[in-house]
Amino acid sequence: MTRPDGRKHDELREISFIPNVAPHATGSVLVSFGNTRVICSATIEEDVPRWMRVQKVEGGWLTAEYSMLPYSTLDRKQRDVTRGKIDGRSSEIQRLIGRSLRAVVDLKKIGQRTVWIDCDVLQADGGTRTASVTGGCVAMAIAFNKLMSAGKLRDFPIRKLVAAVSAGVYQGEPVLDLNYVEDKDASVDFNVVMTEAGEFVEVQGSGEEAVFTAAEMTAMLELSRKGVADIVSKQKAAILTADRAAPADLASLAAAFGR
Question: Which residues contact 258 (CB under 8 A, 6 or more apart)?
């Protein structure tokens, strides 16, 4: 079996992080998984949702929003605001992002604050939800580092980093990190969210009008474990360098798009 872009079955697409692309956000990053590119930002609001105040819940909250920009796909995607409601897929993905990030954050340590994670897809070529979880974690860590430096947090609230990757069965073989062509034709599609310690946060998987065996599922999970370990090392490097990086310029953004 030969993959459309020539990768090995266990090979990730090229992954990169460009920090500080949204200067008004507390933390931000442009994450690229091959030709899938998502701007992830973390904005801190000095308040908590009303339900937390009413129920006297300690600490803060973290929530996420996800959107595919109209020009992110081959055919123009209508904006949710034009349709008058968020589509089911976007709602599902932003809940996944929020759950994944809350799983690794001690919300009591962030104080009476709300962390807004915004994920805007610039270009979609498969794996936008996994890129959003992965980039959202980096943006969140950058934001918390800034609060720590400003003396607004006493303890770093992230227990572990979290990342996500896709896997699937393509032309009869389990493969890692599907692009759009593979995702469209895959008989089985998995999205796996894991911590840097190799713990599962969430697994979404289904046969696309097909079934899969226990051996295939095990193979996809092992591919995902390997992929997440590689991704986490890139996340750590991006977080460590973000506080020393200048705001992203046009040259770095153009380089990210291969121009």
Answer: none
